[in-house]
């Protein structure tokens, strides 16, 4: 079965100038603007103004084309053409899986936030023998996808609200289909299973060869090991939780335990670590977190539960040999937003807002072992980081103990400001108009300190467990906006030298911060910084490290390049050792134009020998 041609249908977008109807809009590179220029004038200042207008229009449309729906699937593998270089002889056989939203607009007037877009799984299959690169892409057949898509006609009708959207062409008042599990956030291959995960729902299992959806794979249900570290006293919050549970579980169909989309791989112990939270804690000023550890066959080895007396929203987290680490992203219930959300007048996420009432950032060091905590430290007492920060993603964490029994914990992560982070405006989405505003991701106030940036958090604990010092510094003094920090996965949980991330060159006047257009390599030991740039009017997503035996930076980096000006996607292979040099690019492979896809979120490299360390 051959791939069908796609329908490139942008959502409705605002424009800084008056534009013709969508179907008559030319590509951004061909957009022309009528200019009124006096031939008698010797003042050339208008040229700079015209250039700025040109850049503004092109930048606006470049941003929109990152979020263009791809309606069709590539059922049979398609061989990609190399436009630069070739697959290196020592590149291992395996598959790079990338997930993210694929659809933003239905056929009945509704648009959705990118976080509510149906999961679209992309697979880049590399064969070291034939040196071929093949591509496949399929929608994850979640319950919501099956309900909203008509396979006979190819049409879509959104019926699920999702947490971040309001339907224009669907039911509003009384629509309880809020937990729209679209399986679009992250992907994992472990224990012979390929899973697509979503923030707060049960993962979906995918057949790795065909990308067919097998069904839901519940990692939480049936985990009946003893619960540790939690104490419920039957207080008012327990009573409130008891009242909320039948509503959330029965009416809104929320699972009792909401699995987070970010997992961790412990390279030393060859374990998969996952984290869940209780559904009712979204609305209560307390947070119950449960950590699970599995062996390579998905046998549950350990379960640890902790109750934290604060209202928290956790997206990513960290671990070391002896601790789970939670950065307390503090939230609060928004009463007026809750009423509007229940009435269908605003997204359900309007019920929550960030809580910047503290000038510091609590960090919880939770013991992995039920038998001991470092220095008999009371895990209920958080370490207070000296600055206020909202944690987005973690690159790595590790701990080092000195001869006197003192412990140093380091975390490399991406954080942003509470003043910038807004649940309802992520990616610049306006739920009232269904449009995207790139200026939200490119604010200019206070330099770059509001936006996502890389940090190093250092925590020094005395032998008795007391905190001696906690510091937060820009990683290698790199202050440009950046996100998606990653490392060589064989060093996960261990002391690492290199961090890679997506960052911005700042070369676009209208899009100075996001989307990202560079890969940055940071050496945390000598504090050196090297970058690779995708080039003009090209953006990138999250890089992925493909390890080889040898030194820490022996291997390859994979990153998708979005050449939005010509509406093309490329898979780029980089040599990590040569980042910063002219020959860093190893190869670039073009995805056919009719298979062009929107911005992906998170990916995973799966070696054909299975993922073991």
UniProtKB/TrEMBL annotation:
Q: Which UniProt keywords apply?
A: Dioxygenase, Iron, Metal-binding, Oxidoreductase
- Span of the secretion signal? none
Q: What is this protein called?
A: Carotenoid cleavage dioxygenase 7
Answer whether the UniProt record assigns the keyword Metal-binding to this protein.
yes
Protein family (similarity comment)? Belongs to the carotenoid oxygenase family.
What are the required cofactors? Fe(2+)
> One Gene Ontology cellular component annotation?
chloroplast stroma
Keyword set includes Lyase = no
GO MF assignments = 9-cis-epoxycarotenoid dioxygenase activity; metal ion binding
The residues that hold Fe cation are 315, 393, 602
Cofactor binding, per record? Binds 1 Fe(2+) ion per subunit.
Instruction: Give the GO terms filed under biological process for this record.
Output: carotene catabolic process
């Amino acid at each position: 079965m051959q791939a069908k041609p796609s329908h490139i249908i942008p959502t409705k977008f605002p424009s800084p100038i008056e534009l013709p109807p969508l179907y008559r809009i030319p590509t951004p590179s061909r957009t022309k603007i009528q200019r009124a220029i006096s031939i008698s004038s010797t003042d050339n200042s208008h040229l700079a103004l015209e250039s700025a207008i040109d850049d503004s229009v092109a930048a606006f449309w470049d941003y929109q084309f990152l979020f263009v729906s791809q309606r069709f699937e590539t059922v049979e593998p398609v061989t990609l053409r190399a436009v630069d270089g070739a697959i290196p002889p020592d590149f291992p056989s395996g598959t790079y899986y990338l997930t993210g939203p694929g659809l933003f607009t239905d056929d009945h007037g509704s648009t959705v936030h990118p976080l509510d877009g149906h999961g679209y799984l992309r697979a880049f299959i590399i064969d070291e023998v034939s040196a071929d690169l093949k591509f496949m892409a399929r929608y994850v057949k979640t319950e919501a996808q099956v309900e909203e898509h008509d396979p006979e006609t190819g049409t879509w009708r959104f019926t699920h609200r999702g947490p971040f959207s309001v339907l224009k062409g669907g039911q509003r008042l009384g629509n309880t289909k809020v937990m729209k599990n679209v399986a679009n956030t992250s992907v994992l291959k472990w224990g012979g299973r390929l899973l697509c995960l979503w923030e707060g729902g049960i993962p979906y299992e995918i057949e790795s060869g065909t990308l067919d959806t097998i069904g839901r794979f519940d990692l939480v249900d049936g985990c009946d090991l003893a619960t540790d570290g939690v104490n419920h006293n039957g207080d008012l919050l327990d009573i409130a939780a008891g009242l909320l549970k039948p509503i959330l579980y029965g009416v809104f169909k929320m699972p009792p335990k909401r699995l987070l989309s970010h997992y961790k791989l412990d390279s030393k112990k060859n374990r998969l670590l996952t984290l869940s939270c209780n559904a009712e804690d979204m609305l209560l000023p307390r947070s119950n977190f449960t950590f699970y550890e599995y062996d390579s066959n998905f046998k549950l080895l350990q379960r640890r539960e902790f109750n934290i007396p604060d209202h928290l929203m956790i997206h990513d987290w960290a671990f070391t040999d002896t601790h789970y680490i939670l950065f307390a992203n503090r939230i609060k219930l928004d009463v007026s937003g809750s009423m509007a959300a229940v009435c269908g007048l605003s997204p359900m996420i309007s019920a929550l807002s960030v809580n910047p009432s503290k000038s510091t950032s609590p960090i919880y060091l939770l013991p992995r072992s039920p038998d001991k905590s470092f220095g008999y430290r009371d895990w209920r007492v958080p370490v207070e980081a000296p600055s206020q920060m909202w944690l987005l993603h973690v690159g790595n964490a590790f701990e080092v103990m000195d001869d006197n029994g003192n412990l140093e914990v380091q975390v490399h992560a991406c954080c942003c400001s509470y003043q910038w982070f807004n649940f309802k405006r992520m990616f610049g989405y306006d739920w009232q108009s269904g449009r995207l505003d790139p200026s939200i991701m490119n604010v200019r106030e206070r330099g770059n300190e509001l936006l996502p940036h890389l940090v190093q958090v250092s925590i020094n604990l005395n032998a008795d467990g007391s905190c001696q010092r906690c510091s937060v510094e820009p990683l290698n003094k790199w202050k440009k906006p950046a996100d998606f920090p990653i490392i060589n996965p064989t060093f996960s949980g261990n002391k690492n030298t290199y961090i890679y991330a997506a960052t911005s060159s700042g070369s676009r006047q209208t899009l100075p911060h996001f989307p990202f257009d560079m890969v940055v390599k940071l050496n945390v030991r000598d504090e050196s910084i090297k970058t690779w740039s995708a080039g003009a009017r090209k953006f990138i997503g999250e890089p992925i490290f493909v390890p080889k035996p040898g030194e820490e930076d022996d291997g390859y980096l994979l990153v998708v390049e979005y050449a939005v000006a010509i509406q093309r996607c490329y898979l780029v292979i980089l040599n990590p050792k040569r980042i910063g040099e002219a020959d860093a690019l190893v190869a670039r492979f073009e995805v056919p134009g009719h298979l062009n896809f929107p911005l992906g979120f998170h990916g995973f490299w799966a070696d054909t020998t299975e993922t073991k360390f």
